[in-house]
Amino acid sequence: MTHGPTRRTVLATGAAACVAGCGKSGGNGSSGSASAASPTASSTASAASPAATSTATSAAGSAAAGKELAKTADIPVGGGTIFAAEEVVVTQPEKGEFKAFSNICTHRQCPVANVSDGTINCTCHGSRFRITDGSVAHPPAPQPLPEKKITVEGDTIRLV
Question: In this predicted model, which residue has the larger pLDDT, 15 or 150?
């Protein structure tokens, strides 16, 4: 007599599939997020001043400090760009003001999918985070996105 899969087998397989689907992309771009070679932007990019603010600090005298992510003009004002391979999203809430946050949602650790209408959006369960400070704009995420350190020197943005 043959038996079908047990409840335990079905649940374990489903949990493994969920973790695989919501886990980190490994930087291969399969999550729908963009890599550094092809960043995802939600609105038209516009030229920005090289001024740096809070999380974006000037790296005076240290041109090689950190990995180059993008040019300031690549980050749209009022939007942002996701760099999946580096697990970071860079935003420009106002012209010349650059912020950086982890691209991993604090709800179930899915990579965020896009930036639009002033929020960084995770499509796994609908969480949204404000581009100004990474705070939760729409649950279920329990905590803000952690800040990442970047530097802005001239027109270059670097991950520290």
Answer: 150
Q: Helices (H) and strands (E) in the chain — how many of each?
A: 1, 12
3-state DSSP call for residue 85?
A: helix
In angstroms, the CA 68 to CA 4 distance is 53
Note the Cα 56 to chain centre separation in Å.
16
Beta-bridge partner residues of 57 = 151
Taking the whole predicted model, whether its pTM rises above 0.90 is answered as no
Q: Which residues pair with 75 in a beta bridge?
A: none
Q: What is the pLDDT of residues 124-158, one digit of tens each?
A: 999 999 999 999 999 999 999 999 999 999 999 99
Residue 137 contacts residue 130 (beta carbons within 8 Å): yes
